[in-house]
Amino acid sequence: MLTDLFPNINLEDFWVATYETFYMTIIALIGTFILGILLGLLLYLTTKNGIWQNKFVHFVVAAFVNIFRAIPFIILILLLFPFTNFLMGTIRGPNGALPALIIGAAPFYGRLVEIALREVDKGVVEAAKAMGAKTSTIIFKVLLPESMPALISGLTVTAIALIGYTAMAGAIGAGGLGSYAYYSGFQRRDFDIVLICSIIIVIIVFIFQFIGDYIANKLDKR
Amino acid sequence: MISIKGLSKIFNTDAHNQVTAVDNITLTINEGDIFGFIGYSGAGKSTFVRLLNRLEEPTEGQITINNQEISSLKTKGLRLARQEIGMIFQHFNLLWSRTVKENITFPLEISGVPKTERDDRVQELINLVGLAGKENAYPSQLSGGQKQRVGIARALANKPKVLLCDEATSALDPETTNSILDLLVDINNKLGLTIILITHEMHVIRKICNRVAVMESGKIVEQGNVLDVFLKPKQDVTRKFVEQVMGSNEEEEDLQQLIQSYKHGTIIRLHFVGETTNQALISQVAKKFNIDINILQGKITQTQAGAYGSLFVQMDGDQTEIKQAIQYIEKETSVELEVVQHVN
Ligand SMILES: Nc1ncnc2c1ncn2[C@@H]1O[C@H](COP(=O)(O)OP(=O)(O)OP(=O)(O)O)[C@@H](O)[C@H]1O
Ligand SMILES: [Mg+2]
Predict the structure, then answer these.
(1) Residue B94 touches chain A, beta carbons under 8 Å
(2) Do A145 and B95 touch (CB under 8 A)?
(3) Topology of domain A2-219, per CATH?
(4) Which PROSITE patterns does the record match to this protein (chain A) (predicted)?
């Protein structure tokens, strides 16, 4: 039936492309989560009157975040080619896309993390201090758990942006649905392929949104 | 014992402006005291109490709690010292992501109490503050009073010697306030804990404190036993706070008119000063002597040190009986008596 509606689709290529999109999104999302939390925490902790108040570190981290957020993703991939080559040994395929995906998305997520941390009740942080908590305890037992719903919502938004990025990366050789739509669909004038890729990407986005909303809701005991 | 010497805190609000929030406070707080600090908004009460566990760094001065000089501790020592100073807050400051039980466990995790001992201790605390059955509720499912009970249990988890309370009842309705204050007194009796309490409501001081300090612009302007301060307030601020619970003297002027209208009997003012034994005085006198006692006006309030206030009564009947009754009160009880008017 699928082949009747979309005559030009090669099922095997299609499944590989879908798999690659999932692969890139998930691995990049994990990397983005870790790097973004790190950046967000640094921004939050080193800010004025923060726990680790430090103008210099704050400036450097903020500059990193702002610069990499400002560069359009498609240019960022090109800019990072040497770095990617050095790190991954290749600039092609799904793995070749990962460094750019993570470096492109982490600063964005880092800002969302910072905003989420700022929303944590200052009084609760103060109560933990008054109990004699170490900074690491405050981070892992107060700041992160108390901001978890916002961290998850932010991650959902970031995941959806990442799916978009994988498609762009696909157009310059990273594989995945973006690549399939562009090379097999658009360039050969087989628009049914472009259409099916769009539909699948929309479905993937909906799945991520649904899972993200569900987890965030589940965690929110406020 | 807590001893505070020359404690000051100056905030630099910007490059040119400074606020002296706490101004050269010297004070001793004895073990087992419930020491109340009262003052209007901006008097520096919160800043003062936050200096005690160094949530604010003192600009100057010394704080010693149980022979440990808090003001000279380094990071790690301060952390350990803080584990032995409980604190409760106006807005409770519970972790919403944790249940009641988990919130109370938190300070035990911080101080490294082994997992196996935590559960027993937490259950004990939950029973102490009267929250049995709510162990697995989240703070959002509790009322304000229940939240503050969690706050108190949490503050007591590491068996502190001192409990700091910053406006602990200001977000609660009067009835809940009373139940929380009763709990604090109960804890003070059971655990022998020293409680330092900040408030802007005199009835809180009246109800549970044995000592009080009145703060104004960062300074302590008056301090002493609660009863003494109630009896003989020296400063205007203090007088205003005392009027909060005792009413003002204007009422006594009204009384003069009332008294004039009584054409017979003896009008007497009874002054209760920290009375604990003679509270049934009126009925005792009425039984012992053949006179009628008519209560005209009065205001008695209960403090930690007993009843305090005055009562105007009219004694009517046989002259000698009245005289004997007066003598009895003067000689046999500690209630002060003053004959206001004698009509025959
Ligand atoms: N972090 C701060 N920076 C600058 N000024 C401050 C700071 N904290 C307090 N102050 C100032 O110190 C003074 C005392 O404030 P504090 O909060 O101790 O008063 P308070 O007696 O607790 O009042 P309230 O009853 O309203 O809580 C105020 O003038 C306040 O503006
Ligand atoms: Mg205050």
Answers:
(1) yes
(2) yes
(3) MetI-like fold (1.10.3720)
(4) ABC_TM1
Residue B286, pLDDT > 90, answer no
**Which pLDDT score is estimated for B297?**
81
Q: Which two tokens stand for residue A40?
A: 């967000």
Model confidence, pTM: 0.86
Q: Hey, how many other C-beta atoms are within 10 angstroms of the C-beta on A199?
A: 11
Check if the beta carbon of residue B76 is closer than 8 Å to that of residue A97: no
Q: Give the nearest partner residue to A126 out of B55, B154, B158, using CB atoms.
A: B55
This complex has an ipTM of: 0.89
Ligand 1 centre from B48 Cα, in Å?
A: 9
Is B318 found in the same domain as B232? Answer: no
Q: Which of B196, B228, B245 is the last residue of a domain?
A: B245
CATH number, residue B41: 3.40.50.300
Q: What is the Cα gyration radius of chain B?
A: 24
Residue A5 has pLDDT above 80, yes or no: no
Q: Specify the pairing of strand B85-88 against strand B162-166.
A: parallel
Range(s) of the domain holding residue B276: 254-342
Q: Is the minimum CB–CB distance between B107 and chain A shorter than 8 Å? A: yes
Q: With contacts defined as CB-CB under 8 Å, which chain B residues touch A135?
A: none
Q: A191-196 contacts: CB < 8 A, separation 24 or more?
A: A192/A5, A192/A6, A192/A7, A192/A8, A192/A9, A193/A6, A193/A8, A193/A9, A195/A6, A196/A6, A196/A9, A196/A14
Q: Map out the domains of chain A as residue ranges.
A: 2-219
Would you state the structure tokens that stand for residue B98, as one six-digit string? 């944790």
- Sign of the dihedral defined by the CA atoms of residues A189, A192, A193, A197, in that order: positive
CATH of the domain at B282: 3.30.70.260
How many structural domains compose chain B? 2
Tell me, yes or no, whether B55 and B6 share the same domain: yes
Cα–Cα dist A115/B339, whole Å: 71
> Is A70 in the B-facing interface, judged by CB distances under 8 Å?
no
Residues B64 and B165 occupy one common structural domain: yes
Q: Which pLDDT does position B264 carry in this prediction? A: 79
Residue B227 backbone phi and psi in degrees, to 5: -65, -45
Q: Do B58 and B193 fall within a single domain?
A: yes
Q: Which atom of ligand 1 is nearest to the CA of B12?
A: 4
pLDDT of residue B198: 96
pLDDT digits (tens, 9 = 90+) for B28-50: 999 999 999 999 999 999 999 99
How many other β-carbons are positioned within 10 Å of the β-carbon of residue B9?
Answer: 22
In angstroms, the separation between the Cα of residue A132 and the nearest Cα of chain B is 4
Of the residues B202, B222, B245, which one is the last residue of a structural domain?
A: B245
